[in-house]
Amino acid sequence: MSRPLDTEVMNDACRLIQGEHDFASFASSLDDGEGTLRNVHEARVEREGEFTVFKIAANSFLPHQVRSTVGLLIRLGLGKIGIRDFRDIMEAKRVGLAGPVSPACGLCLMKVNYATPLGS
Which contacts qualify for 43-48: CB closer than 8 Å, 24 or more apart? Predict the structure, then answer.
């Protein structure tokens, strides 16, 4: 039987990632000259029945940023790292440091918003 995730501490970390930050530690790779500043408008963890759901909205994402964030949040929620470790990883700004990434199965892209509708 798996341990329940500590969603309270996971939401503490979600508050840390909200706003504009350098998310290099959460990227799996970067193209030459690609900037790593992103603005996370919303991030939260919720229980929905038997599921733990992570919701995030941002101006854009780096390669594997969401999967790395989920993986790190799970390690935090299981008590394998502390909130200070999470903060230190975030502030280190070293590509791939937040890994390993969460598997893609179980993750679902719900919506994409564009400033200008496609086809305009």
Answer: 43/14, 43/15, 43/17, 43/18, 43/69, 44/11, 44/14, 45/5, 45/7, 45/10, 45/11, 45/14, 45/73, 45/77, 46/7, 47/7
Q: Say if 116 falls within a structural domain.
A: no
Count of structural domains within the chain:
1
Going by pLDDT thresholds of 50, 70 and 90, the confidence category of residue 104 is confident
> Which residues form the domain of 19?
7-92
99 inside domain: no
- Residue-wise pLDDT tens digits, 35-75: 999 999 999 999 999 889 999 999 999 999 999 999 999 99
